[in-house]
Amino acid sequence: MTEARGSAGPHGETHTRHAPGTPCWVSLMVHGPAATQEFYGALFGWEFQPGPQQLGPYVRALLDGREVAGIGQLPPDRHLPIAWTPYLASNDADLTADTVRLCGGTVGVGPLDAGEAGRMAICSDPSGAVFGIWQGAEHRGTAITGVPGTPAWNELLTFESVNVAKFYETVFAYDEEPVVSADFDYVTLHVDGRPVAGIHGVGTALPRDRGPHWMTYFEVADTDGTVARVVDLGGHVLEPAHDSAHGRVATVADPEGARFSLIQNPR
User: Fold this and answer.
1) DSSP 3-state of 131
2) Which residue intervals define the domain VOC in the entry (predicted)?
3) 158 contacts 212 by C-beta, under 8 angstroms
4) Is the torsion defined by CA of 6, 236, 85, 100 positive or negative?
5) Fewer CB within 10 A of the terminal residue: the chain, N end or C end?
């Protein structure tokens, strides 16, 4: 993580419409949604309300009444990795999905309407990392950022950044800012001059059981305290809390194995 959104202030930043290419939502599909809601409700203070059911049972997580993320139930016969998936904003989900295919990616689900909320697709890039496309209608996406319990950053962990960055740049018209370093492979993706996501090439350090994948960072008030809470709630620590240039960071997994990172922004 080399670029992170600055703090939105003590009351957060409320979003109305997300520019194309901006991560606008994160969603988690699990086998046991009730237990997963209990875990994240206790960890982040989320409450839940029903969402679109096009792909099965689904709820939206709320923080102070504003939508921050989604949790759905995987069909029993689908043995997919349990993972947080970022959705990237689009003005035309069908056109974006066509571009994904033309650029060597795969469209696994959709595009399809999610009720009146919007239109979506689930895709994978040429390296196999899964992401979503979201064309908002009634539901624009994450309604608040910049406060504990909200998504703070999304980062693609992959073998190398150069080729996969070209894919995302072509599909979403990102401007990219590579890190010029012989031993650190990182590209920051920009929309309208703002850093919105990162691509980190980690080579053989990529977990063999996961392959290339997107990682969501959630903002917390106290990384160490939240890591302890994760363990108390039945989760696991993958990378202990440590200081970085952008705050204190840790990587953890929930009881079903979904990986995510925690970041405490320096004030």
Assistant:
1) strand
2) 22-136, 150-265
3) yes
4) positive
5) C
Instruction: Output phi, psi for 168, to 5 deg.
Output: -65, -35
Q: Are 84 and 216 in contact (CB under 8 A)?
A: yes
The span from the CA of 218 to the CA of 230, in Å, is: 13
Q: Shortest CA distance to 142 belongs to which of 6, 11, 26, 267?
A: 26
Distances in whole angstroms, Cα of residue 215 to Cα of each of 89, 173, 266: 17, 21, 21
Give the number of other Cβ atoms within 10 Å of residue 239's Cβ: 13
pLDDT of residue 76: 80
pLDDT digits (tens, 9 = 90+) for 193-212: 999 999 999 998 998 888 99
Other C-beta atoms within 10 Å of 115: how many?
Answer: 12
Cα 66 to Cα 62: distance, rounded to the nearest angstrom: 5
What is the longest distance spanned by two Cα atoms in the chain? 48
Query: Angle at CA 143, nearest 5°, toward 236 and 83?
Result: 30
Taking CB atoms within 8 Å and a gap of at least 24, the contacts of 94-97 are: 94/119, 96/121, 96/133, 96/135, 96/171, 96/172, 97/121, 97/123, 97/133
Per residue in 30-63, pLDDT tens? 999 999 999 999 999 999 999 988 878 999 999 9
Mean pLDDT rounded to a whole number for the chain: 92
Give pLDDT tens digits for 161-187.
999 999 999 999 999 999 878 789 999
Token pair 């919105």 in the structure block, residue: 196
Reduce the DSSP state of residue 111 to 3 states and report it.
strand
Tell the residue number behind the tokens 């969402």, with chain if given: 51
Q: Is 178 exposed, middle or buried (0-12, 13-18, 19+ CB in 10 A)?
A: middle
